[in-house]
Design brief:
This protein is α/β, with parallel strands linked by helices and 242 residues long. Helices cover 34% and strands 21% of the residues.
Length: 242
């Protein structure tokens, strides 16, 4: 069981809320005050607070929340306006920090909700291609995946049409100047190497760009610095269908 506090329709949180609500094990309150005044089960084990921006922690309200739910563990689901808070602001204490673009593995793992509600896919087969203009970025990801016994290779954009086949392609944002540019490259891959699943490696992702890439065929997003566990997880699941 999990309690979601805060905005569940914000564009950056909507996918996470859809997944949580479909589990049948998540309840919602609009605010911390509402969660105290209209409580759910006192034994609720997980509480996630959606934070679209850097509003300061209401200490008295949060203390009341902890008293109402003494057994709960807490996490904050952070929107893009919370980026840099650890360096320039005061992060909320006693809460695990989960950025909006990492919900599909971090929130899923932390929440303890029914795993049948999470996106799933058959185990990855075939070779993984890491597409990057930077040899440093490509080789770093390759080394990490090979250490986890995942067959992979760094691929320059100009090699895509003659290399492969790939089960998955991890595209660094340095090679995706525009959506049209990526679609042209992806078409070349499909023509020569069959159908691959596509993943996006990006600094400071924005939800509008990610939604456009999802619509174009991307299955997963990974923010830099890269999280190997998140990459391994997404290689073995498909994103939830709408």
């Amino acid at each position: 069981m999990m309690l979601w506090i805060g905005d569940n329709q914000h564009p950056e949180f909507r996918d996470a809320w859809t997944w949580a609500s479909q589990s049948g094990q998540c309840q919602h309150r609009d605010s911390i005050d509402a969660a105290v005044e209209q409580p759910v089960a006192r034994s609720t084990p997980r509480i996630v607070i959606a934070r679209p921006d850097r509003q300061p922690l209401p200490a008295a309200a949060f203390n009341a929340l902890q008293q109402q739910y003494p057994l709960a563990s807490y996490a904050t689901l952070l929107g893009s306006l919370c980026e840099g808070e650890q360096r320039t602001g005061t992060p909320w204490p006693h809460c695990q920090r989960i950025y909006w673009h990492r919900w599909s593995f971090q929130l899923v793992a932390w929440s303890g909700l029914n795993p049948q509600a999470s996106p799933s896919a058959p185990a990855t087969s075939g070779c993984i291609g890491i597409v990057s203009r930077s040899r440093w970025i490509g080789s770093g990801v390759v080394d990490s995946l090979r250490h986890a016994s995942i067959p992979c290779v760094a691929v320059a954009p100009q090699q895509l049409a003659v290399a492969g086949p790939y089960s998955d392609l991890l595209w660094d944002d340095s090679v995706i100047a525009t959506l049209d540019d990526w679609q042209a490259q992806a078409a070349a891959v499909a023509a020569h190497a069959g159908t691959a699943r596509h993943h996006w490696l990006v600094s400071s992702p924005r939800v509008e760009t990610w939604h456009a890439l999802q619509a174009a065929g991307f299955e997963a997003l990974h923010s830099k610095p890269l999280d190997l566990d998140g990459i391994l997880d997404s290689l073995n699941r498909r994103t939830a269908t709408a």
